[in-house]
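Run log, item B.
One chain of 350 residues. Sequence copied directly from the ordering sheet:
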Amino acid sequence: MFISLKKSLKKSTVKKTILLTLTLLLISGAFLYFTGASEETAARSEITIGYFPNLTHGTAMVALERDYFAEEIADFEVTTRHFPDGSLFMDALTTGAIDIGLVGPGPALNRYLQGADVVALAGASTGGNLLVTAPEVEFNRAEDLDGFRIATPALGCTHDLQLRYMLAETNLTTKRRGGSVDHRTHPPASISGMFRRGQLDAAVVSEPWASRLEMEGEGQVALEWDEVPWEGDLPNTIVVTRGEIVREEPELVQQFLQAQQRAVSYIDDNPSAAAEIIQESIASISEQHLDLEIIESSLTRTQFTSELNEEAVKEMAEISEAAGFIESSSLDGFFVSEDFVPEDLAGHSQ
């Protein structure tokens, strides 16, 4: 009898606890619904920006050093995180570890087409990607990649999709797909050591790493930034964020874009000063000091712009679908409307 009563009381207590929990959830949910804010938005006091230690992410470095982000996004504390590749960047963005930032279009479109709430806001840079080979390797045309050991920073990244475009044009493919090209993934900073040890034949890398290999005699440029696929018109780096931030905090996004555009203008007007900022930023992040001559060479191969070539990105999506990274290449909803972007930044090309 006692045991039966005890069980009955226990069940009653559990039921009351569940009902109370559900009631509290309903109340909090109703509050968020009627106020039109998510818990994250209501509690936000800082914004975390993500970018890479690559020259092609120079607008982020300049905006930070010149306090453009701090001035434009004055209501928030601005923090940053750095990433070695786009896959890790996208993991951080989709899980809320960062809020906005710069990444190659390849990882961004792949994650969007895999179902993530990701949107492209603007461009950040074009060009800046090159095909480099080890000093002793002979290369005259894309067909020479047959049998090469070639690296990109990650699978599905922008460099990877450019490589696949090159291979497809010459009827070559990677060993993973039954072909002859040994495709590997390695961070750009490790390429020189792998060339020296004879472990790699070529790599598709972003600046400043291509200029460094060339100027230090540890690699040679096989295809310039305007000779790789899309002939320099491919957005190398774009600005992305989560769709919820665009919907709930449009002013924050516009403030970020204004700060980036100030950085674009500064780099255009002050290339020497910008080179010094980028040099110091890369050194502090990667712990690798690059001569100013290398940075200045890299700047001649990279264009900084807020314009976004949507057509080139759509072609990348088709290549990514053919490679099996995604099941569909439709990017409807990926690009933010120009009506949202501040007037002086609008420049999405179709």
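Observations after the first pass:
- The mean pLDDT is 86.
- The first strand starts at residue 46 and ends at 51.
Flagged for discussion on Thursday.
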